[in-house]
Design brief:
With 333 residues, the chain is an alpha+beta fold. The chain is 31% helix and 23% strand. It contains twelve helices and 14 strands. The protein has a five-stranded antiparallel beta sheet with strand order 4-5-10-6-7. A four-stranded antiparallel beta sheet has the order 11-12-13-14, with helices on both faces. β8 and β9 form a beta hairpin. The radius of gyration is 20 Å and the shape is globular. The termini are far apart. The mean pLDDT is 95. Bound molecules: flavin-adenine dinucleotide and iron/sulfur cluster (SF4).
Length: 333
């Protein structure tokens, strides 16, 4: 690993000033579960000269509900999100997503800010410098994407332009289904982006001098049912091959609020709007669920090795929606 300076920022303002002073050559470090591996493997084309530890900034790890809005600080650990009784009760799709992240040890160190900002898992992108040299693909400012011709079994089937790496964050998928937002601070002040709008075709929308300060999600209508289902290869510790997060409210036998978000299918979380439209103002039953699941892949354009993801997404969406059907039936009894 290349040597670097390490400074503790005690306030967000100090962090932003340090990022500005070392523009493009400093990186924020939180739990370090992603960043340290990335630095060790020398994946980044320009390694940082400074790491700014933000873990000493006070009050950035709170989880609370205020004015019917869920507010989570960027330093809240994934394990705290998974274990929070408030989140389990009112925003269960988020706690299910958090529970599905990595292992208990990693969840205890990993922060929500780091989860949203983690580097993609594309194996060409992550190819270690020591074994044959890093691959300078589009995402690193190069002029190629080896995934197009190469082994692209875990890559995007929708929405990709030059880069086909999928968003690895399970939290981002659940947050999108909750209409959640990401709070950011930088030299020009504070701004907020929607969870899906935070991601760009080549990474995220953060400027090099900006920091994520937290996430927010509006309170949901009462008796909303939520579900997060993820398909991964090694169940206890793995990234999603595909996932689906669903939030539905049924009133008078019809769906009055529907959010369906797909994960690991694109460089950003994907709202399955065609599926949502099929369910809105209709009853949730086997027929509408099947139609909604089929519509979830209407935009899919798989690569040479990932056509299987199309069927998988249909199945996962169908399962997530069916689990809500059973939940609402149980509640009605
Ligand atoms: C074995 C393994 C399995 C995993 N499985 C999953 C999984 O199933 N699902 C999933 O979603 N994730 C998974 N992860 C990823 C894991 O969730 C992330 O590594 C973790 O959340 C990153 O958080 P961190 O605090 O450690 O971030 P760090 O490693 O400290 O930082 C990661 C990146 O985010 C940036 N960053 C951190 N905080 C901020 C901030 N507040 N503002 C701006 N930039 C910031 C850093 O500069 C860095 O680029 C897995 C990781 C491992 C190692
Ligand atoms: S999919 Fe993206 S990250 Fe992976 S090799 Fe292609 S450009 Fe690079």
């Amino acid at each position: 690993m290349r040597s670097f300076k390490h400074l503790n920022a005690k306030t967000l303002e100090t962090c932003v000033t340090l990022l500005q002073t070392h523009h493009g050559l400093a990186k924020v470090i939180a739990g370090g579960t992603d960043l340290l591996g990335v630095l060790k493997s020398r994946i980044l084309p320009e390694p940082p000269e400074l790491l700014i530890n933000i873990k000493e900034i006070p009050n950035l790890d709170t989880i609370k509900e205020e004015n019917r809005t869920l507010k989570i600080g960027a330093l809240a650990r994934i394990s705290e999100i998974a274990g929070s009784s408030l989140i389990r009760k009112n925003y269960s799709v988020l706690s299910e997503a958090a529970k599905s992240v990595a292992t208990p040890v990693i969840r205890d160190m990993a922060t929500v800010g780091g989860n949203l900002c983690q580097e993609v898992r594309c194996w060409f992108y992550r190819y270690p410098h020591e074994i044959g040299g890093r691959i300078l693909c589009h995402r690193k400012g190069g002029s190629q994407c080896p995934a197009i011709e190469g082994d692209n079994r875990y890559h995007a089937i929708m929405g990709a332009k030059k880069c086909f790496a999928v968003v690895p964050s399970d939290i981002a998928v659940a947050l999108t289904a909750l209409d959640g937002e990401i709070n950011i601070i930088g030299p020009k002040g504070e701004r907020t982006l929607s969870a899906a709008g935070f991601y760009t075709p080549m990474g995220n929308a953060l400027d090099p001098d900006e920091v994520v300060t937290g996430i927010v999600a509006p309170g949901l209508p009462e008796k909303t049912s939520q579900s997060f289902i993820k398909f991964s290869l090694r169940k206890p510790v793995d990234f999603a091959v595909v996932s689906a997060a669903c939030v539905i409210k049924i009133e008078g036998n019809v769906c009055t609020h529907v959010r369906i978000c797909l994960g690991a299918v694109a460089p950003f979380p994907v709202r399955a709007k065609a599926s949502e439209k099929i369910l809105l103002a209709k009853p949730l039953n086997e027929e509408t669920i099947r139609a909604a699941a089929d519509a979830s892949v209407a935009e899919a354009k798989p690569l040479s090795m990932n056509t299987y993801k199309v069927e998988l997404i249909k199945t996962i969406t169908q399962r997530a929606l069916s689990s809500l059907l059973y939940k609402t039936k149980e509640e009605a009894v």
